[in-house]
Amino acid sequence: MKSGHKDIAGTGPVLAKFNMDEILNCMHCGFCLPACPTYAQTGLETYSPRGRIALMKGVASGQLPVDAEFEHNMNACLGCRACETACPAGVPYGGLLETAREVVQDYHHTAGKPSAVRSLVFRHLFPYPKRVKRLGTLLWSAQALGLQKLASRTGLIRMLPGPMAEMQQAVSRVASPWKRSKRQTVMPAETPKTMTVGLFTGCLMDMLFYETNEATARLLTKAGCDVVFIKDQGCCGAMHAHSGEMAGAKELAKANIEAFERSGVDYLVNNAGGCGAALKEYVHWFRGDPAWEERANRFALANRDASEILAELPPLSFTKPVPARVTYQDSCHLAHGQGIRTQPRELLRSIPGLDLIEMRQADSCCGSAGTYNLTQYEMSMQILDGKMVHAEATQARIIVTSNPGCLLQMKQGIIRAGLEDRMEAVHIMDLLNRAL
Q: I need a labelling partner for 290 at 20 to 30 A (CA). Which of 222, 231, 300, 324 fits?
């Protein structure tokens, strides 16, 4: 490990933050080690789930300080939760990691060192849907005027930090503000109605992948759902929670719960594995809160991933064959966080002409992990390059994903591997929509 780290704060115990029962449930058996991408890359115990839990135990008991090395080890984790699938004791590692990162942020604020960038992103951007939409309009304007291509051609793009300069290549054309303004509030069922659902549009999902949200709504109407675009819904709070900004995450959750309750829909449907995992975990975020726990529980029970609910509804009538070799990359928070694995594959197999080929380690992390590919760029790219070796071995023409971050990451992986002429990355909802 790196030496010379300075303490962020002293060694005062933070036992009240951690659930010691959950920490002590870790038997240090090592079943998590083969499942952990960062341990596979480094072989370091502190880069493994059980190693990080040992560090959390030391901090929670006051035996270790909350210092820069503790922060480094917590932030080096992808939060993919593959260790939860592997763990025989059922340790809720994802929740423990969020607590550890919250402890780090608490100490940053106590030490008077809050990050201006974090404040901008988490307090002044994501909580305000209109600001996110304006950011989308700025991106569309840059693309429409050719500024993105010009910056790449002239080398100006190198003025951006390396990770952002490379990632911008994977960003597709976003929908125009005029197109977004024409969205209907309600899309009626096109077959005999079975239920009314709200579509959780998300923040970045609706900005970068507006067409995917529209495709999801169309699929739901074809399956017999009235689809409502719920007013006043916003960011799910996942980015906040994963970054230790738990207070902000809870405020976003409360707004989404209230919007859902006013809507009167039967279910809330999302098409982003990371968002869906957060929405279903609101009940854990508000555990013990007399004003919100029951409301959060009802909300969590009403949430469904789009592939999950489409697998339960009457089968879609696909009329357009997709004669292609396809492989599926699991979203970590869909597979490990929500336990949804078979439904996306069943839907893909129902498309005429499609040949689904399983890649090795399909449920291992692609290295996106929210903002990980920006904050931990080198590790992210090592993991991505390994993933692309497995993807290329399938000889698939299409890599299908079920999460926006994964989709951008796999597009970037295709570019890095030089496979643009014979492979594309597609969200599962877009591919299903192609077959209608």
A: 231
